[in-house]
Amino acid sequence: MTDAPRPIIQIQNVSKRFGKVTAVDNVSLDIMAGEFFVLLGPSGCGKTTLLRMIAGFELPTEGHILIDGQDMAGIPPNKRPVNMVFQSYAVFPHMSVADNVAYGLKIAGVRGGEVKDRVAEALELVKLGGFEDRMPDQMSGGQRQRVALARSLIMRPKVLLLDEPLSALDAKLRAQMQFELADLQDQVGITFVTVTHDQDEALSMASRIAVINKGDVAQLAGPSDLYEYPANRFVADFVGSVNIFEGKLTLDEPDRAAVDCPGLGRVYLNHGVTGPHGADVWVALRPEKIYLHVPGEGKAVRAAAQDAPEGHNFARGTIKGMSYLGDITLYDIELESGARLRVSRPNLSRHDQEDFTWDDKVSMHWRADSPVVLLG
Amino acid sequence: MAIFSRTPRAPLEYSRTLWMRLWVGAVMVFLYAPLVVLMIFSFNDSKRNVVWRGFTFKYYDKALGNDVLVEALVNSLTIAALATLISLILGAVAAVMLWRFRFPLKGAVDGTISLPIIVPEICMGVAFLIFFAKWLEWPTNLIWPFNLGAIIIAHITFCFPFVTMVVRSRLATFNREQEEAAKDLGAGEWAVFRDVLIPHMRPALIAGALLSFTLSLDDFVITYFTSGPDTITFPVKVYSMVRFSVTPEVNAASTLLILLTILLTAVALKLQGVKAIAETH
Amino acid sequence: MAEQDWKANKRVFAAVSVPTLLWTLLFFVIPMAIVWFYSFGENRGLTEIEFSGTLENYKRATEFLYLSIFGKSFAVAALVTLICLIVGFPVAMAITFASEKWRPWLLLGIMLPFWTNLLIRTYALMMLLGTQGFANKGLGALWDGASWLKTLVGMQPLPTWEPVQLLFNNFAVVFGLVYVHLPFMVLPLYAALDRLDRSLIEASLDLGAGHFRTIMRIVVPLAAPGIVAGVMITLIPALGAYLTPDLMGGTDSQMIANVIERQFKKANDWPFGAALSFILIYAMFILIALQSMRRKVPEAR
Questions:
Q1: Chains touching chain A, criterion 3+ CB pairs below 8 Å
Q2: Which of the residues A59, A75, A86 would you substitute to probe the B interface, choosing the one with the greatest number of B C-beta atoms within 10 Å?
Q3: Are the CB atoms for C184 and C114 separated by under 8 Å?
């Protein structure tokens, strides 16, 4: 896209309280036209409430929601230029597929041949061509979801809202649908806003993700930034799995930094973190970014020393637990400090699983660009 | 929730629209106004019901001093209590039978058991009239409470299918694995019934008891046909009083019965909570 | 749910089936069968009835007088059901969408009158509707007010208020039956609406439909089983109503139950009364058969 990004949805200082419970707490964010935007967070974090406020089913206690520059206050859901795919799909069980898909068009006053053509076109788009006369109870969950998608897309909304679109599908279908949704969005060019609690879903589909925690935006970033540069402990922990250690910042210069962690040892980074010297910070280290070495510790020390000063980015421990997951194996390692570390290792050859086993003494190292220092 | 609350109304909050509130309010007035007026005028110091002439308990004295009325009330409560007890047992047993077993002619048995729910009261009244007067010739000169036997039998017959219905829909939600778990842990048929099934049925049994008791206490038509000339129940007595003349005494007696209904409801609420009571219906 | 074959556990089956079956047979099937036999009998003398197998009683029931009473009973019951449906539907909607805190109390508000003695409720209504009752007083006050307003603008006052006859006519019967049966209608409607997935309503609004259109095209069709149940649960007892027409009706407001009662208590024509009873029962069966046919239609699609 060469156009300058234009905000299609502007959420301005929106709060929503149900009695004493604050579901959404002073959120502001802009969603750009053409984005595949994902609201990601644990259940009960307020992400669905936010989506329902965009659709008009809940009204903000404070703040404003603008769609395409127009304030939505006082505009009921049936007059908003957005459509929603519900978590339960909400396909009308007493209407055929064609009647379901045509429902909104007929209400908008479209008549005759155009309805038929557009229904056929919409069904083709979601790969349900020829299903016009089926009743919803004769279809699988995945097919019903496609009907719900077609029913919304036929309205040509400015924004399509999807509430946990994949949560009711089985694992295989979910993976397939992730790709299809992303393709579909590409094809129709409509802005998609999706709510999910599943990080894989978010990472694979989104162009941008807002991680929501306790009614507030914890981080707003693209998928890889979110994973590689989490802004705080909540995001680091919620997106992917991670080892977190508390420590003190001992060195902080523009091109390098060091943290002294009682649990993990001394951690060296090849970039600055701009935190106050001596501050309490947290170091996050992803399990897949840690290299395991068979005893003969010299190798690990030498490997670590390639990009970090002597005595940094290196640890020793004992394997206390293993779980073999086929593609990778997870190791639960007790460090000499008594802390636990999770390490994952791809099973590159069939015999890899035998390399390490319970109670083996191991050494570990990681690269200087792997750890992330978190200030909050 | 104030009548005019300031937070804007979300689309599905239908019950917050003004016309809905007015509608529900009007229906509630429609349902309760007559009862409230009846209760207020039981304290009215006037023979004619319509003009307020001052507060009095006179008609309560009169109603409670009226031996026939008191006897009728005692009869009604006795009938309702006995009919409820037996209906509860019969109804629960029938529900277990229909839920648990497959047997020949099950459809016909099921239909016949639920038939008293559908057959008009008047037809059942007629049937009991003929049955007890002409065929069984239930003696009418027995001592109390056996003189009420025919009425109690009639009441049980139309009450227990309701218990069966309520208990059966509750049993449908029973997780068979609980029964299997109990058996796995060594429980026999009877222990399973007592420790697992009965506790599961409890809310339905309470609802069924409440339903039976009110149905029995409420019944006029069937009792009117079944009862001999000498046995009188509360509705039959009120009926003859209303036919004869409308006096504040009837108001007083009615108020007492309404209070009893409210009391029973309160007891049921205490036992079950509003939600459970509302849901079993 | 796997049902057990009765032979697999005969002891338990006997324990649960014998009391039920015996009771139903002795105190329901036999009495009803006797009525059925009576309906083919003839009066012989004052108390003697002979089972002659005659169809005379049924023939008599088709005379214009009785046919018109049947017709009238149906008309009244249908009208009552319709009014209950129109009045009750918004109430059921309001309860369904009320807040968690209010819903149980509203339900209780509907159920409490249902638990209150029918005779007391009828009597209370009679008090209110009588010529000296509050309904008349209220109307009288309105009338006087209107009259006063007319004099205020310099017109002739209205003639003095004559109390309207609100009781002992067909209006009173319909009014009384609606009063008594309204909770019967609201509860099944509520049960059906409560089961409805709310996102269906939201989806309809989301696709541009207004509230009225959503109710007519989504809510009503999906609540149809509950509506049918409510209609049946109101129509059937209304059709067989005895007390309300007896106490609140006039001489021309007799419904079928009153005619049956007269055969037994006054006219002493038991066989004819028995025949009328069974015609009423058959009518119920036809209604129920119609309902179950209706239920099968959408499944066939």
A1: B, C
A2: A59
A3: yes
Which of C197, C207, C298 faces A88 most closely, judged by CB atoms? C197
The tens digit of pLDDT for each residue in B229-266 reads 778 888 888 888 888 776 788 888 889 889 988 888 88
* Arch. (CATH architecture) of B60-280: Orthogonal Bundle (1.10)
Whether A78 and A225 map to the same domain: the answer is yes
Contact at CB, C13 and B97, closer than 8 angstroms: yes
Q: Looking at the domain assignment, is residue A2 inside a domain?
A: no
Instruction: Give helix A97-107 / helix A113-125 axis angle, nearest 10°.
Output: 120
For residues A158 and A252, membership in a common domain is answered with: no
Tokens 């006053």 map to which residue? A109
Name chain B contacts of C103, Cβ cutoff 8 Å: 278
Q: Helix, strand, coil shares of chain A as percentages rounded to 5? A: 25, 35, 40
By three-state DSSP, how is residue B255 classified? helix
Around Cβ C97, how many Cβ atoms within 10 Å? 19
Contact A77 B7 (CB under 8 A): no
Total domain count for chain A? 2
Whole-complex ipTM? 0.86
* CA A364 – CA A366 distance, rounded (Å): 7
Domain match, A251 and A224 both? no
C125: contact with B, CB 8 A cutoff: yes
Position B143, amino acid: I
Helix (H) or strand (E) holding C127: helix C118-129
Query: pTM to 2 decimals?
Result: 0.84
Chain C residues in contact with B172 (beta carbon < 8 A): 1
Q: Is C1 touching B (CB cutoff 8 A)?
A: yes
| Backbone φ, ψ for residue B276 (5° rounding) | -60, -40
